[in-house]
Amino acid sequence: MSIYYDNLTKAVLDKSDSKDWMSASREWEIFDCVEDNTRSTICICGKEGLRYVFTIKNMLNGNLLSPIGSTCIKKFNDSELYDEASIWEKEFKLYHAVSTNSFINLKDSGLFSRKLLRKLYEEGAIKPTRYNNNDPYKDYQFLLDMFNKRNPSERQLSKCTAIILNSIIPFIKRKLKK
Ligand SMILES: [Zn+2]
Residue 142 C-alpha to ligand 1 middle, in angstroms? Predict the structure, then answer.
């Protein structure tokens, strides 16, 4: 195994309750993520140049571990943890797409995924409005249907864009603008 892998497992085991890597690597969840535009952050494994800098939290003892990159998070044998990390990265990409005024399209931009839509809904990114009868789930379901649909109509796409611009984008800005 590489020195980086050694450094990673040592740092994680040091702050875990379990003493073997397989169990220890399942004790963690994503706590936070910030972006380092200068890419000067060094991962706990020793690798340089992190752009998305994660902090992970041990669910058993509350220990925090940072800075850590998604390449290391992938080595945790815990697909849920890695999915969470990927969603954070997707949210940052969405945030940038907005700040550079890219046209945000549910279908074409490659910015959205089913998991991201689900996460946004769970995080409360979709607001209750009079258009969804104060039930955000309806908008979530609509976005998901349109995401899965081969050829949504112009009208359906406009409704998606409205939900994205009015609810999701302001939420992403609040969440990531720290
Ligand atoms: Zn690393």
Answer: 38
